[in-house]
Amino acid sequence: MSTLDDLPPLRDVIAQHGLSATKSLGQNFLLDLNLTAKIARQAGDMTACDVLEVGPGPGGLTRALLHAGARKVLAIEKDARCLPILADIALHYPGRLQILEGDALAINATEHLTAPIKVVANLPYNVGTELLIRWLTPAIWPPFWDSLTLMFQKEVAERITAAPGSKAYGRLAILTQWRAKARIVMEIPPSAFTPPPKVTSAVVHIVKRDQMLFPANEATLTRLVATAFGQRRKMLRASLKSISPDIEAHLTGVGIAPTDRAETIPIEGFCALARSLDGSK
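-> structure tokens emitted (281 positions)
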């Protein structure tokens, strides 16, 4: 499939506009419209949803989202060189594509979107994790989005979805999985991109939970997990000593051995420990 619609193939569009990926913007263009269509499908039915896309570049995924029936796509693009290309797509899908030029970290996208909202993006590598954390830690939960379908470096995707006991398990896994259900839905080789990155990419599909997986105070849990994984090679009785002088009693009280290490403790265990610490105040 060289094209999703009557618009020109992406390679021709890029050549016509003299566009090349800029390293400082974390750009790697995905030109295979078969792949962009497959990514769009991972987000599920979008016909009754607004979709937020960050870093659309020349619009391969944008076209796939619109072709898949998204009610509206809000595309936030920092690179002014891409705006004429996106404008051509907007003309092809009248009234369904809104383009905002600027930094997604500085734009309040919710002002331009109507629920239900999905986020689907091939995120620039240099801001991907920061955007994810922002979307996972709003002031009020549930968040503005129903699901996130995001492309990351495979290593980051594995950290998001990691299970206890694995090398990748840590703060990012707990941050995500306490609030949402996350799974890797596809991998994409470097050869699919222009220019090819040095690493394999992966798409993660994240669905919000209406309530957190286990009860815990967010500030306490965040501090606890950050401290535990900040010295992940140490036993918990040592790594968490700064949290409480009675940390061993709290650990044993919730069924965690003081000699355990952070990477072996499931989310439920950290939440129980957070509740124990809060109860002692």
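The chain has two domains: 10-208, 218-279.
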